[in-house]
């Protein structure tokens, strides 16, 4: 039976050992990652003989004295992680329903699809979404053959533009590119706190050797696009990107995606495009690389008293719109 642990009660070493050894292993669920994206996070833990055998991260926020769950930025999936089949995973879902009257948004990982069914009657509202995965455990030539005609044409255009890919450790350039273009199209804008969180997250990822930050540069020395990738546990996550207005037409992001695919082709990795929810133009780009849809579920719940319920619904709507826009990766 899982128990609720506050942040200070969690044994970080035991937590990370469980996540790392689990079949569902994801960088988002590691303690140091959660410390950045959701300070003060809690967890559900099942122990056997002092060992954590199953965990579920709980990104907690507080407002009006109410503790609730809200999916953090830069953290597409969380959910259930276990090192044994002896654990009853649905007990974890039942536990979060008991502990939280309000779940603004909580997202399970792509290995947790057996846990939830949108058709089942429940207090929870369950929504199915898709990210896109590309299996890299094949030759680059075989992968390239599955690129769409548009993707191949865009790659040729970026090559004709004379773009050069270079690796960097300067996350400020990526943030500047985002501020100058994508952020101006986000209703309500983007808080400086979000940029600060991205800076901090990059520094931690880079220190652990898990981040690859790439930029494309023109022959005149202008940096026109950037992409941040995270490699952990046989998965490469396309975490964040941006391009200048001119850079969008030069398809630098497609060039960098192709570069990473070439680099890891023939190895047992899954490339996760971390697709934004239901933005068809971006999804078509990722499918153009031969990526296949991988389903995952998001849950919400609002069992607050009626006056608070309506207030939270309004705030939740605004929050989800900002999250969707900020995390959407523009097509390239």
From TrEMBL:
Classification via InterPro entries: Acyl_CoA_acyltransferase (IPR016181), PG_Glycine_Bridge_Synth (IPR050644)
GO terms of molecular function: transferase activity
Claim: Transferase is one of the keywords in the record: yes
Protein name per the record: GNAT family N-acetyltransferase
Alphabetic keyword roster: Transferase
The UniProt record lists the keyword RNA-binding: no
């Amino acid at each position: 039976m899982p128990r609720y642990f506050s942040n200070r009660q969690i044994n970080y070493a035991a937590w990370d050992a469980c996540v790392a050894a689990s079949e569902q292993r994801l960088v988002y669920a590691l303690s140091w990652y959660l410390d950045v994206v959701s300070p003060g996070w809690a967890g559900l833990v099942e122990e056997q003989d002092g060992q954590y055998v199953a965990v579920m991260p709980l990104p907690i926020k507080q407002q009006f004295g109410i503790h609730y769950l809200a999916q953090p930025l830069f953290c597409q999936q969380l959910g259930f992680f276990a090192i044994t089949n002896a654990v009853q995973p649905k007990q974890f879902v039942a536990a979060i329903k008991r502990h939280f009257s309000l779940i603004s948004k909580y997202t399970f990982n792509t290995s947790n699809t057996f846990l939830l069914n949108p058709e089942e009657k429940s207090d929870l509202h369950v929504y199915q979404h898709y990210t896109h995965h590309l299996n890299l455990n094949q030759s680059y030539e075989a992968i390239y053959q599955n690129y769409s005609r548009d993707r191949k044409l865009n790659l040729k255009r970026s090559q004709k533009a004379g773009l050069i890919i270079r690796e960097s450790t300067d996350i400020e350039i990526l943030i500047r590119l985002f501020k100058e273009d994508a952020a101006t199209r986000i209703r309500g804008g983007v808080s400086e706190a979000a940029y600060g969180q991205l800076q901090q997250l990059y520094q931690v990822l880079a220190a652990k050797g898990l981040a690859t930050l790439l930029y494309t540069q023109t022959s005149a020395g202008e940096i026109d696009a950037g992409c941040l990738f995270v490699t952990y546990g046989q998965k490469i996550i396309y975490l964040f990107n941006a391009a200048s207005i001119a850079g969008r037409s030069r398809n630098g992001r497609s060039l960098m995606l192709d570069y990473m695919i070439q680099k890891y082709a023939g190895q047992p990795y899954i490339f996760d495009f971390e697709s934004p929810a239901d933005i068809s133009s971006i999804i078509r780009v990722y499918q153009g690389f031969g990526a296949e849809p991988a389903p995952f579920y998001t849950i919400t719940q609002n069992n607050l008293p009626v006056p608070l319920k309506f207030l939270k619904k309004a705030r939740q709507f605004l929050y989800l719109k900002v999250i969707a826009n900020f995390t959407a990766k523009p097509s390239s």
